[in-house]
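Hey, resending since the last one bounced:
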Amino acid sequence: MVAVGIGPVVSVQNRAISAIGGRRIIIALGALYLALAVGRGLVRITAGRPLGNVLIITVLIAGPGLVLLYCGYRLPAFDIRSEFHSFVAEWCLGGFGVMLGVLVLYSLQPGEAVDDSSTVFILTALASVAGLAAGLHDAEAKTRTRELEQRNRELKRTQSELEETVQRLEVANTQLAESNDRLEHYREYTDQVLNAIHDVFYVLEEDGTLQRWNESLCEVTGYSDADIASMSAVDFVGDDDREAAADAIRDGFETGSLQLAADLVTEDGEAIPYEFAASSLETPDGESVLAGIGRDISEREERERELERRARQQQVVADLGQLALETDDLDELMREAARQVADVLDNEYCKVLDLDREREELLLRQGVGWRDGIVGEATVSAVESDSQAAYTLSTDRPVVVEDLETETRFGGPALLTDHDVRSGISTVIGPIDEPWGILGTHDTDAKTFTDEDVNFVQSVANVLAEAIERRQYQAELEELIADLEESNERLEQFAYAASHDLQEPLRMVSSYLRLIDRRYGDELDEDGREFLEFAVDGADRMREMIEGLLQYSRVETRGDEFAPVDLETVLADVRENLTVKIEEHDARITTESLPRVRGDEGQLRQVFQNLVSNAIEYSGAEPPRIHVSAERNGAEWTVSVTDNGIGIEPAYQERIFEVFQRLHDREEHSGTGIGLALCERIVERHGGEIWVDSEPGDGATFSFTVPAIEADSDRPSDLESRGYSVRRE
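The structure tokens again:
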């Protein structure tokens, strides 16, 4: 029997195959042959045919069906794009169609006919398997887009070989009725198929010897056909994989399929990662064998290792970034960065050099792999032309050295040469024009580093730079805060001392002015009495301003510790304190339910009293109508005091919170101009802010925020318990 080659001679619309799915077609075809084999066998056994003959024919039909089913289910595992699955199905159907056509042609010859359905089933099944093998090869060729031109030429050569094989198949079919040597036909057929496949193709006997193999096995391993014929399958794998290979072969004959990943060892001892897959078949002489493919997975494993290394590099950068946020110890961060960089890149050394601009040298501040005692002590010149560190500082990109012995840009400082360094990556930490130092990693072997390796080192350097910048900024900020606190303390002491020391002479002025009024008031004319009233009023206003200044200066130093404060109680106290003023102005105050907050009860009472008093004072011609409300915003409450007063121009809404700033003359409205400034400072002490929303003539709403605490919403209102009317919304 001459070797068989299959080509798609029946034109099938690609769109229709794509719609059904190439994988489904292959699986369906395999299932069809299995069903035919089983059905035919049952019918023949029922009809009383010899069991041995029935089983042989059934296996010959079912075997290719199993191959089609296995390859159909395993099709996604092949290195084939999914869009090319339809090409595999076309080849498979083409093999089926060609063989069927050949049988029809053969039957049309005078005196010749194929009247045995078993022959049709066996030959079309084998042709479908051959088409499947060719289709896999075709789809793989299409997948390798970078080698498209070369693969197309190979495909054409394969097509030509397959067409010649079809011609030989016609001759073989002509001789089929006259020939009983099925084994010879089987061998010729498998030889042709095996040599048409570029992967290692093999047929194993039950004892592990190779019955058939293709030329690729010789090309890959370097063994001759004579060598391979004398070897067992386990002889082709490494010592560590031999037991697994023997078990896989034994299990393969028991279960009908083999899966194994092992190193294929060449004649020269080179170990190549391979993936083997096989299915059980029965030869024409009834022998059970395992037929399969071995595929080189070196590139795939290398891609997987590269992806794992990139993922690890990204994780290290993320972990170092998190550590930079969690620790204030730069040396701890630098040690961890050096350790991680050396570990990920599999280098022996890593260093962090600290630049001293005045001394023009770099200190080995942290590192791994270096001899004991030099970390924290060794220095490298930052200006010597022969120094890699100096060269790194002078360039705007990372410096990569693959072999220091052949490097022409620099020779390397003693720190590197004394440690037999030959390769590495170094990059600047911080801005190019004002670097903080250098991050470098080195190895004693000549190495080639990828762009991802360089980017990884640069990313770690960026993490260190950001941490250093943040630490410097934090140090400067802490120093500034300390200076501000000291300055504020001095200002508070000065304000307190000044206001306190002014009290005595001011009391003396007020006392003598009143004494003059009592003793000599009758002797003064109208102008004199007016002047005296101005002086007394000025002294009183001065006293009020000094007292206000004292209160303002004591907000931070004389306040009570924060504790839970019931704002309804605070507002009730304020209303009692302002009872006279409320009655004089016919003011009406409404309120919503007010919360419990955390703060200084006395200072918050002062805030409420100032805001409510101002709302009454600046009510205009209408009776004051004041509404107090509160709204929860996360961890704080926003408390608002709304009035129907004269309002405030937008241009002056920030100015009113400044000390001694007034928008009206004392003849229009009384006050020292310090009340709102005092409110602002109290609110700021509580970690909040205060602001006003207002338009002239439309009243004003003063709002401030204070820290919230959990409160019992069902407790009785303190205002209600005192008899006040509370409008709840």
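The longest strand covers residues 271-282.

Sorry for the duplicate.
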